[in-house]
TrEMBL record:
<dbReference type="GO" id="GO:0005737">
    <property type="term" value="C:cytoplasm"/>
</dbReference>
<dbReference type="GO" id="GO:0016491">
    <property type="term" value="F:oxidoreductase activity"/>
</dbReference>
<dbReference type="Pfam" id="PF01266">
    <property type="entry name" value="DAO"/>
</dbReference>
<dbReference type="InterPro" id="IPR036188">
    <property type="entry name" value="FAD/NAD-bd_sf"/>
</dbReference>
<comment type="similarity">
    <text>Belongs to the DadA oxidoreductase family.</text>
</comment>
<dbReference type="InterPro" id="IPR006076">
    <property type="entry name" value="FAD-dep_OxRdtase"/>
</dbReference>
<feature type="domain" description="FAD dependent oxidoreductase">
    <location>
        <begin position="2"/>
        <end position="348"/>
    </location>
</feature>
<keyword id="KW-0560">Oxidoreductase</keyword>
<protein>
    <submittedName>
        <fullName>Glycine/D-amino acid oxidases (Deaminating)</fullName>
    </submittedName>
</protein>
<keyword id="KW-0285">Flavoprotein</keyword>
């Protein structure tokens, strides 16, 4: 029996990969797929710049966002801050970036195969138009991106934009529903409770429910902090809205702080990057306000909230500790890297690989 803690994108893929190996799988999550629905669904396999929160100057950028009301800080974890100071300004070896690229391309090939079988989650490959404060500075940063993204400078809505050429999009709402359905059909069992602890005695969930396991994959995002992993919950909001407007492009407006992705029956509007683990969702209104610069009239279908699990350097943590594998930290590339992180976690859990280049040792050096 293998237990997966967390039923988001990484947890659901982990469960499916384990079942494909013939393992019995039990997933603990109070609402499987729900937290991953908040994401816009933009896949960026050759771009890491959006996740490079430890580059020099980023704290000033975030402070400016906070001063303008585009970001929020309600609680900071001292372990995360100490780890951030250790990796601030640090770059990594070509081996690390090659590994990250492998995760991204494995993930992209996974979505392509899923779409070839049945494209019920609106997968498509198309450019992403990014509105930024300084196009030339952004182009300079992209040229230094270790994943070597292809891009050009273009225009959208009368504004100069970075056109990222290697992007794809998926409906995270539909993809999460499909993964959950396929997992159930494959025989994965779900217990809709939160996990309290993971130890040598097994997994303890709310209500005193204990399960002994041959292996555990902790894919519960921010919950990994319970195991001493420095992970911050970067809250974001996702809205599905109905509108008569024809957007025509996938747009990331970093000036206003909003993503807009058109799908067949709705437009997905997402935004915010808040250090905020609370249940106060009042900043969500700012996301809708920012979207009105692009689509004036719309009605909200629903809202999803997500807590992006961000490590201090934006890179995932994929590590084995005894019979427990930790798989978290995708930050703003959770769907982009999710299948790849899950595959790496399963390989560790089954003893196929001894380690990865993305362990927590980098926060201790």
């Amino acid at each position: 029996m293998f237990v997966v803690v967390g039923g988001g994108v990484t947890g659901l893929f982990s469960a499916l990969y384990l079942r494909a190996e013939g393992a019995d799988v039990l997933v603990f999550d109070p609402a499987p797929g729900a937290w991953s629905r908040a994401a816009a669904g933009v896949l960026e396999p050759t771009k890491f710049e959006i996740n490079r929160i430890n580059v020099r100057g980023y704290p000033i950028r975030y402070l400016k966002m906070w001063l303008k009301g585009k970001a929020r800080v309600t609680r900071l974890d001292w372990r995360w801050i100490l780890a951030y100071l250790k990796v601030y300004g640090r770059d990594y070896s070509p081996e690390v970036w090659s590994y990250v690229k492998e995760l991204a391309f494995f993930s992209l090939s996974t979505y392509r195969r899923m779409a070839e079988a049945k494209n019920d989650f609106e997968y498509r490959e198309e450019p992403l138009y990014e509105i930024v404060e300084d196009v030339e500075e952004e182009a300079k940063a992209l040229k230094a991106d270790p994943l070597s993204p292809r891009f050009e400078i273009g225009e959208v809505g009368g504004k100069a934009a970075i056109v990222y050429l290697d992007a794809a999009v998926i409906s995270t709402d539909l993809a999460a529903e499909r993964l959950y359905r396929e997992a159930e059909e494959a025989g994965v069992k779900f217990i809709k409770r939160r996990v309290v602890s993971v130890s040598e005695n097994g997994v303890l969930a709310e209500g005193g429910h204990t399960v002994k396991a041959d292996g555990v994959i902790v894919a519960g995002g921010w919950w990994a902090r319970e195991l001493g992993v420095p992970i911050a919950p970067m809250k974001g909001y996702g809205f599905r809205v109905k509108t008569a407007a024809r957007l025509g492009r996938t747009i990331a407006d970093f000036v206003s702080g909003v993503f807009l992705v058109p799908y067949r029956d709705w437009v997905k509007i997402t935004g915010r990057f808040d250090f905020d683990p609370t249940d106060d969702y009042t900043p969500s209104s700012a996301v809708l306000d920012a979207a009105r610069a692009w689509i004036r009239d719309f009605s909200v279908v629903d809202m999803a909230v997500g807590y992006r699990p961000c490590s201090p350097d934006g890179l995932p943590v994929i590590e084995k500790r005894g019979y427990v594998v930790i798989a978290t930290g995708g930050c703003r590339l959770g769907w982009t890297l999710g299948p790849g992180i899950a595959k790496a976690a399963v390989d560790l859990a089954l003893g196929r690989t001894p380690s990865t280049p993305l362990t927590t040792m980098r926060f201790k050096e």
